[in-house]
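Hey, can you fold this one?
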Amino acid sequence: RSTLFPYTTLFRSLFIANDVAVPPGRVVYTAMLNERGGFESDLTVTRLAEEAYLVVTGSAQGTRDLDWIRRHLPAGARAVVTDVTGAYAVLGLMGPRSRELLARVSDADLGPAAFPFATSREIAVGPATVRASRITYVGELGWELYVPAEQAGLVYDELAQAGRDLGLRDAGYYALDSLRMEKAYRAWGRDVTIDDTPWEAGLGAAVRLDKPVPFLGRDALVAQRARPLAKRMVTFVLEDGAALPWGDEPILRDGRVVGSVTSAAFGHTLGRAVAMGYVRYPDGVDAAMVASGRFELDVAGDRIPARAGFAAPYDPGNLRVKS
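Sure. Predicted structure:
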């Protein structure tokens, strides 16, 4: 993951679609949009101080996002953007027992009242000081730990030693992809692109239309919200536990192709594959349209029935994430 530090009050109004004028220590998930309202990126912004922000974006987006911010700084803006990717390692400590494990190596109060979801602060982990942000991309309780690069090995060893009897395991990209699919978490470049708006992607929470200063793409979003959405992201749970879609499979409603899969993975918690993709319908894609249709995915020539909906298949109420 790539990390940027912008220093400016302009930052919170011009480039970011959500409201990041929050107290220091709060983490905000937000979009950066183009004039059409499409996603140039989705990322998290942590307010560190009055005019200091930490931006964390996907590892494949860092250079692109840095360029986007720099190109859209207004002339004469008092702003500094510094790429500090190489200075930090990020360790994702996720899972139902992550609080228990982290408490073994830190004296910080990690309880839900003292350290609620979407907060960030510096804590001690063994002999190191790290920034702990309580966010997750896997649909479980967890923290992202931003560790000075020279201490990454030390912190990893502390966690590994403390978590041996708790079932701690290293997890790779495919495990992460499986878990994020069960929670219907979008991935930029696959599920959200420059041609997809927050309304279409089901990410309206990443936007605040009532911000005091308009952001890039706001007018397009206001106009789009005034009419039915002819394209929307839909989540599918396949009924055949042996079917394995990978992406780009046709989506059929009542035998007719209405879209294609953007992401798919086997959901080990659910015991079957999960897919996401945009469904298109001229009269508008809404809950009634989805509920009244019979959906299938064409997986390698076989039409596999699938349950369709807008909610995450796993823990749609976010109870496990926010506990």
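The chain has eight helices and 15 strands. Let me know if you want another pass with a different chain boundary.
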